[in-house]
Design brief:
The protein is of the alpha/beta class. It is built from 12 helices and 10 strands. It has a 5-stranded parallel beta sheet, sandwiched between helices.
């Protein structure tokens, strides 16, 4: 018998299990869950992301806990000590997103549905690549994941920028394992002269005026042309299907609109 009571400590596990038609297996969700919207009404919130209380997770009597990355390593360790099975995903790229979908499908006897979802997501990626190939110009893009300190985009975000037709100005740092390796300085951003700045402050509203007030940044092409945009963190910063179905689509539209203004 496959798992019947799954506690999801990360949002992408929730969205994926719903997409696979396995939502009845979910015993609890992360408080950061946004997709699908009904999950917040239907499922108890049992965790934050890095702020997790063991007793709240154990209270829903999970037979499996799904976690993500080294940031949740401590709670995963504690759960294992309590005798709970834990699966920790640690992917940082699009290929990893697709593997995650396949793995979750296998865990809940939804392998066929998982393969269909992977095919759909892969088709969206390839269609975006084809559309980007027709763009006359590729904008230089600075994606800001956090503002203090300034953190550039993580691996799958950088990949999506490239697929959609942009050039991530900090692509060289995107595959770093931790956020500390993606911290950038104001001078480094100035040197790379982004034509578009995208803010996606994790769990917080992007404030363009905060960016405009940075010393010397008024010289950047992005600020001169008022190319400061927000993609909500829920749409792109969780390494699941929504990053492709929502985040990629928004990137494509931004780059098309930018090209039309040139």
């Amino acid at each position: 018998m496959s798992y019947q009571r799954i506690a999801c400590l990360s949002t992408e596990a929730v969205e994926t299990l719903y997409a696979l038609g396995a939502e009845e297996r979910i015993a609890g969700i992360s408080g950061f869950t946004v997709y699908p919207p009904r999950a917040r009404q239907e499922k108890p919130k049992i965790s934050g992301f890095t702020s997790n209380k063991l007793e709240r997770i154990l209270a829903v009597e999970p037979d499996l806990v799904i976690a993500f990355s080294d940031l949740q390593a401590d709670i995963a360790r504690d759960l294992v000590r309590e005798g709970v099975e834990v699966h920790v995903f640690n992917h940082r790229d699009i290929a990893g997103i697709l593997r995650m979908v396949g793995t979750l499908g296998a865990l809940v006897d939804k392998a066929d549905e998982a393969r269909a979802l992977v095919r759909d997501l892969s088709a969206r990626v390839e269609a975006a690549r084809a559309a980007a190939a027709a763009l006359p110009r590729r904008p230089r893009v600075y994606f800001e994941e956090w503002h203090d300190p300034m953190i550039s985009g993580i691996g799958w975000v950088s990949e999506l920028i490239g697929i959609a037709g942009g050039e991530d100005v900090f692509a060289d740092r995107a595959r770093a394992q931790g956020a500390k390796q993606r911290v950038v300085s104001a001078d480094e951003v100035l040197q790379r002269e982004p034509q578009i700045i995208i803010g996606s402050w994790c769990g917080k509203k992007f404030v363009p005026d905060h960016v405009r007030a940075r010393p010397g940044w008024d010289a950047l092409p992005a600020l001169r042309d008022d190319e400061l945009h927000e993609i909500k963190s829920a749409d792109i910063l969780a390494p699941g299907s929504v990053a492709i179905t929502h985040g990629l689509e928004q990137l494509m539209q931004l780059f098309r609109d930018w090209g039309a203004r040139q």
